[in-house]
Write a structure and sequence with these properties.
elongated; about 40% helix; 3 helices; binds L-tyrosinamide; 3-stranded antiparallel beta sheet; alpha+beta
Amino acid sequence: MTRQGNANVQASTSTQTTIDEPSMYNVYLLNDDYTPMDFVTEILKTIFRKSPEDAEAVMLKIHEDGKGVAGTYPHEIAEQKAIETTAQARSQGHPLNCTVEKA
Ligand code: TYC
């Protein structure tokens, strides 16, 4: 006969007393041969809140190195910024791509 009921089952009672900081994620922009430099610089200013000087420097770094960090955020925000970046690029006909990677 199969045993029924839960007379010998002990519920787990562990309690978390401190809150972990959320893990952070880098949004990388990837270089390509077609997206205009000015468009990438605008994305870095408007979506990633860079100063004009930082936006220009990061854009040139990506152009030279192949990829670079646009910003670092909790996972949901990083994904949203990546989606917004590609949406704006596609709407202007640019192939710009980005990746989200654990920092
Ligand atoms: N390589 C592009 C050009 O010469 C500029 C560019 C920079 C494109 C950064 C994408 O993520 C990028 N027009």
